[in-house]
Design a protein that fits this description.
globular, disordered C terminus, alpha+beta, 7 helices, 6-stranded mixed beta sheet, Beta Polymerase, domain 2
Amino acid sequence: MLARSYLAQLTTALNRDFGNALNAAYITGSAVVGAYRPGRSDLDVLVAVDVVERSTLDRVVATCSHEALPCPATKLELVVYEATALASPGSRPRWSLNFDTGIGVHHVGLDPDAEPAHWFVLDLAFARRHAQPLLGPPPATLIGEISDDAIEHALEQMVRWYELNEPAGVEVARERARHWKLTGNFTPKPGLPSP
């Protein structure tokens, strides 16, 4: 797996910050399906905890920021869920922290209602099938199943988001949605093998 040293350091930091509340950490996204492209791809990490307090999340942001732990990819996308929320994600997953960090990137999200839900539906559905544990049990043990209808709706919302916000990416988004409808599988980008 790429960036082994970085992921090992990140896992150590998460273990230190969450302590006994940490259930699992997973690497997901392009890195687990052979679609990672140096200089273009992110590192996606999903974290499951028992219960988390704001002070702990603030500590994670500080210790896992690019300034404290330089990310070798375009950026780190780190999402933290409490175990109960992860077990039943539904159509609006209730994450506790959505943290993006990299060169020139620093986003700290703490309110699931303030960000589009479709990204998290798709990320969890993908992670349940394909994520690899950095620590903890297989992902399907902790991540609840998301219905095909919820996935299809999230893909439609993703296409709409690109139409409104990043028109240059809309054809890629449409192709990914078409691929799901035809195969029931995710594809990171058109032209790459399906995971």
